[in-house]
Specification:
Number of strands of chain B: 10
Distance between the termini of chain B: 41 Å
Strand order of the largest sheet of chain A: 1-4
CATH class of chain A: Mainly Alpha
Oligomer: heterodimer
Order of helices and strands of chain A: HHHHHHHHEEEHHHHEHHHH
Structural class of chain A: mainly alpha
CATH topology of chain A: ABC transporter involved in vitamin B12 uptake, BtuC
CATH architecture of the largest domain in chain B: 3-Layer(aba) Sandwich
Number of strands of chain A: 4
Strand content of chain B: 15-25%
Largest sheet of chain A: 2 strands, antiparallel
CATH architecture of chain A: Orthogonal Bundle
Shape of chain B: globular
Order of helices and strands of chain B: EEEHEEHEHHHHEHEHEEHHH
Radius of gyration of chain B: 19 Å
Helix content of chain B: 40-55%
Distance between the termini of chain A: 41 Å
Number of domains of chain A: 1
Structural class of chain B: alpha/beta
Strand order of the largest sheet of chain B: 6-7-8-3-9-10
Number of helices of chain B: 11
Number of domains of chain B: 2
CATH topology of the largest domain in chain B: Rossmann fold
Radius of gyration of chain A: 21 Å
Strand content of chain A: under 5%
């Protein structure tokens, strides 16, 4: 087992605890950047999809995983980002980079506006309120036809960055790298937030609002910030998603997407950046895995095997299994495996057993 | 001038009068304890100073300034830190991160600077860590620095909570039952630590406790509360022998005999 021997404060706030881990992430980024050379166009599209979901996942992870505010309405913010970006490019004629950044900021501001009345809601009530928001957004998209194209929807405008055309179909590798760079920037920003007072304030209001307040954390302001940052990132994911699916209408941003997003980060592992990526990977690969299994079954048994709703069914079954057996998600499971291997053969079963705390009775809310 | 003045405050929850025109003043540099049986209103008093409750009448003043115009989140910044009766730590963070939250009011860099992690942010983070490390040294928490709260023994959590309050660099420290549920040895440790906090850090201590014995050992002055009313204020010995205090603790017969 490796223990970091810390000799300075600077060492403790580095992005990576040691050289080995830094190299591992560098290798991972290099591998991710090399994907267009390794994968065919279809798989590259799926990889792009994973990246976009990972951005959306990070957006929700800040809010739910770190600030502890459950949201079942993040599809609404995906939609805001997506439509804002497309409308800014089409109507205002902004170049992609400008409209993309503005779309994120707009979504963030909408998020803060939504957060203000939601301050008094806790836990499940906040989830219900945001769920309503998600449903409402679908209808608003249909009603705001002059802007959003109603049920017909919009076609994503062409992206041109510094004279180079980035098209999802004509140049999937460029689009992939675009998404990858957004992922890297967001991940870095996320990581920075977690090692500064802001990130600690998020965790503080998640674990104990009352003592966060006593420590001088302005709970309302911190929640608004969490909503703002979360929605900004989600808005960026939405903008990229719009370009990815090419044509979009209200059906792209249904409440099911909101739920999927939340389920995704729970499966990935709440409270960790990696969790957003694992969740995205699972979410995108399930339909493919089902297709492969179905093709195999059809070849073996003959006939057609189309089961409606199987994707959602399997996804939710995975969620239930995770909640029952590994509430810390894929990331938590991997962390345990790592410790198991490092300590082998000294690991004991009870090492990861969670201690029960019996002191919550007199908690003030 | 008194550091903290509570001036005739009344708090009611529905029909229950939790505090009834309570007044006292804490002088700079003293250890002031509030004792009383369960339900006397001790914790309500702390929550009042923390601005979690609104008084119906009366005033609270810290260094001459009224606290009633401030929100709960602004109290820490003034230099009033506190602990909680039932330990309110951030369960899933490490001891270090918990103490760093105590530095929240001392942050100077803006949010965008934090997201970009500018050199100024880095310098400030290092300064915070140095400050927190002094608290860790002071309370002997080195062993637990990177441990998650969820796995720590109760006695250690109690010390961590004091540490988090000290990380604020407070002028007055409010301790809500610092001895409750500690073993004898841990209680002794805590007693010396409270003395040290005043002696070495120059922090005024306001403490709530119901164990008279432990209180009299460290306190300069004691105030006894019962049913939301002040029944005695003075030196530990004087309060301990006050007939109405004995009555509140032991009942009327004991007081009569």
């Amino acid at each position: 087992m490796r223990t970091a021997f810390k000799t300075s404060y600077a060492q403790d706030i580095r992005l990576f605890p040691d050289v080995r881990r830094a190299l591992r992430y560098v290798a991972l980024v290099a591998l991710a950047a090399a994907m267009p050379l390794l994968l065919d166009d279809f798989l590259l599209g799926e990889a792009t999809n994973v990246l976009i979901w990972a951005i959306a996942g990070m957006g929700l992870m800040v809010l739910t995983g770190h600030a502890g505010q459950a949201s079942l309405g993040h599809a609404a913010f995906l939609a805001v980002g997506c439509y804002a970006n497309a409308i800014l490019m089409d109507r205002a004629g902004l170049p992609f980079v400008a409209s993309f950044l503005t779309a994120g900021v707009i979504t963030g501001l909408v998020g803060v506006l939504i957060a203000v009345p939601a301050f008094r809601l806790h836990g499940i009530y906040l989830a219900i309120a945001t769920l309503a928001l998600s449903i409402l957004t679908e209808d608003i998209i249909v009603l705001a036809e002059p802007w959003t194209g109603g049920v017909i929807g919009l076609v994503a405008p062409d992206i041109t960055i510094a004279g180079v055309e980035v098209d999802r179909y004509a140049s999937p590798d460029l689009f992939y790298w675009l998404c990858l760079s957004v992922v890297l920037i967001v991940t870095l920003g996320y990581r920075n937030v977690l090692r500064t007072p802001l990130g600690r304030a998020f965790v503080a209001i998640r674990d104990s609002e009352i003592s966060a307040q006593a420590m001088g954390v302005n709970v309302a302001r911190t929640k608004a910030l969490a909503f703002g940052l979360s929605c900004m990132v989600t808005g960026w994911a939405g903008a990229l998603m719009g370009h990815f699916v090419y044509t979009f209408n209200h059906e792209v941003f249904t409440v099911i997407i909101s739920i999927q997003l939340l389920v995704m980060i729970v499966i990935g592992g709440l409270g960790s950046i990696q969790g957003a990526f694992w969740g995205a990977l699972v979410l995108v690969s399930i339909p493919q895995a089902i297709n492969i299994a179905r093709d195999g079954a059809q070849a073996a048994f003959g006939g057609s095997m189309v089961i409606p709703g199987i994707e959602t069914g399997i996804f939710m079954a995975i969620l239930i299994l995770f909640i029952l057996f590994e509430p810390r998600g894929i990331h938590g499971r991997i962390a345990k495996w790592t410790i198991y291997v490092e300590l082998f053969p000294l690991c004991r079963r009870d090492m990861f057993r969670r201690q029960k705390s019996f002191l919550k009775t007199e908690r003030m809310r | 001038m008194s550091l903290l003045e509570v001036d005739g405050v009344t708090v009611r929850f529905g029909g229950v009068t939790a505090l009834d025109r309570v007044s006292f003043a804490v002088e700079p540099g003293e250890i002031f304890s509030i004792v009383g049986p369960n339900g006397a209103g001790k914790s309500t008093l702390f929550n009042l100073i923390s601005r979690f409750h609104e008084p119906e009448e009366g005033d609270l003043r810290f260094a001459g300034e009224s606290l009633l115009r401030l929100a709960a989140a602004e109290i820490g910044g003034l230099g009033i830190a506190r602990t909680f009766q039932n330990i309110e730590l951030f369960e899933h963070s490490s001891v270090l991160e918990n103490l760093l939250v105590g530095r929240h009011t001392r942050r100077r860099v803006s949010i965008p600077e934090q997201i970009l992690f500018t050199p100024a942010t880095r310098r400030e983070e290092i300064a915070h860590r140095a400050a927190v490390e002094r608290v860790i040294d002071f309370l002997d928490l080195q062993l637990y620095r990177d441990r998650t709260i969820a796995g720590l023994p109760y006695g250690v959590r109690k010390v961590v909570e004091v540490g988090r309050a000290l990380a604020i660099e407070p002028r007055v420290l409010l301790l809500d039952e610092p001895y409750s549920r500690l073993s004898n040895e841990e209680s002794m440790d805590m007693r010396f630590r409270i003395g040290d906090i005043r002696a070495r850090m120059g922090v005024t201590v306001l403490m709530v406790e119901h164990d008279m014995g432990l209180v009299s050992a460290v306190s300069d002055r004691v105030m006894a509360l019962a049913d939301g009313r002040v029944i005695a204020t003075g030196t530990p010995a004087a309060v301990q022998s006050h007939p109405r205090v004995i009555e509140a603790y032991l009942g009327t017969q004991a007081a009569a005999s």
